Each structure stands twice: as structure tokens, then as C-alpha cells.
Amino acid sequence: MKTPITRKRIRNHLAYCWWKYALVVVAAVVGWSLYYSTTRYRLPENKTIQLCLYTYGDPIGLDAYMQRVNAEDMTDMESMSCYLGSLDEQQGEMELTTYFLAGEGDVYLLSDEEFRRFAPGGVFRALEEEESLLALLQNAEEDLQRGWMQYVNTTGESYGEEHLLGIPCSALPGMEKLVARPGEAWLCVLVNNGNDANVMRFMEILVQDALEGPLVEINMEEEEQ
């Protein structure tokens, strides 16, 4: 004879076996998370370009510019965006160190302090042999001189020849509306960006556009209001 199912029996069953159901739910969630993380589409490294902003500026305007370049000039890229990093001195430095070691980000927009702290360590790509890029900046040689420096070893000693490790935003008039202090901001390319050809193509477009005028159009009606 079958035992009848009553509310009391159900309550007793749940009181003693609830953990089994909880375990099933947890296992299902973990299983789905693992399945999603291993099967979801990942953007190829050579199809993405990220500009990381670590100085006071306009991340929304920079992101809008990246989107426009993606739509008009670099349509072969699947994603182009601007990332705003932490501006807290301690947290920002830790975040930058982690990003550099992991090869995250491609182009960095840094404060003068961060540029001079990290550039001698060899994290940025030397730009002096990029003839087409430097040709655009032939009238900004005086500004560019500030970006030349030697590498420094772990003991703090300089060695080797000087390299051009960054482009000062003071040489790029179109950056004025997007960076709070253009005279103290630098554009740098991560040495291990994993997408060098496309990143340098973007740098040339960015520099050319910034020399011609504002990177983002300003709505004069909104400005007057």
C-alpha cells in the first residue's frame, strides 16, 4: 500500500532534504556560467582597439570619436572604444600596472606624472621609426623632444639610446576639448598590444584628425544655452 502524500510529510521532507535542492540549484547556476563563459563569442584581439584614459578628460567624447573612426575609417574593426581608468593615485597606479602586465588596452592617454613613471620601464612602444606618423608631426618637433627618454633598469639606472615613447597632447590642437590639461597629457602605444598594425593605423588617423581640428563636433546651440 502506497504512503499518502500529505502537507506534513512534504514539510518534513523539505526540513531534512532542503540542502539537496539548494545544491542542485547552485550546481545548475555554476554549470550554466561555465557553459556561457566557454561558448560565448570573444572578439579577436586583432579586431579591437581600446583607448585607455588615465587623466582628466572627456571619456564620452573620446568614445564618440572612436565610434566615428570605426564607422568611417576602420570598418574592419569589430570594436573600438574608450575606457576610463581610475584617477585615484594609488588605485590608478595599481590598475595601470596590472593592465600593462596583462597586455590590456592599446593606446593610453596618460597624465605627465604617469607617463614619466611608466615609460622608462619599457611598457610603451618606441615611435621614432614610424615615418608616416612623424611626418604628420614635423611642425611639432619642439613638443616631441619632451617625449624622448632612455629606458631605466630595476636599479634605477638609465641605459641605451633615447626613444620617442609618447606624443604630447600639446602638439595636437584637436585634443584641447577632450583633455583637461593638454600640456600635461601624453598619447602612448602599449608595446605588447597584440594588434600593432591596426593600432598604429589608428594612431595616424587620430593624430591627423587632431591636427586638423576638434575630434568631436561641438553643438554651438547647446553651448550657448
Quick recap:
By secondary structure, this protein is of the alpha/beta class. The protein contains eight helices and seven strands; from the N terminus they run αβαβαβαααββββαα. The protein has helices at residues 7-39, 59-72, 89-102, 112-118, 131-136, 141-144, 196-212, 220-224; strands at residues 48-54, 79-84, 107-111, 148-152, 158-164, 167-168, 185-189.
Structure write-up:
44% of the residues lie in helices and 16% in strands. It has helices spanning 7-39, 59-72, 89-102, 112-118, 131-136, 141-144, 196-212, 220-224, and strands at residues 48-54, 79-84, 107-111, 148-152, 158-164, 167-168, 185-189.
List keywords for this structure.
single chain; 225 residues; alpha/beta; two-stranded antiparallel sheet; disordered C terminus
Q: Note the main sheet.
A: 5 strands, mixed
Task: List low-confidence stretches.
Answer: 218-225
Quickly count the helices.
Answer: 8
Proportion in helices: 40-55%
The average pLDDT score comes to: 84
SSE run: HEHEHEHHHEEEEHH
Write down the Rg.
26 Å
Shape: elongated
N-to-C terminal Cα separation, in Å? Answer: 84 Å
Alpha-beta classification:
alpha/beta
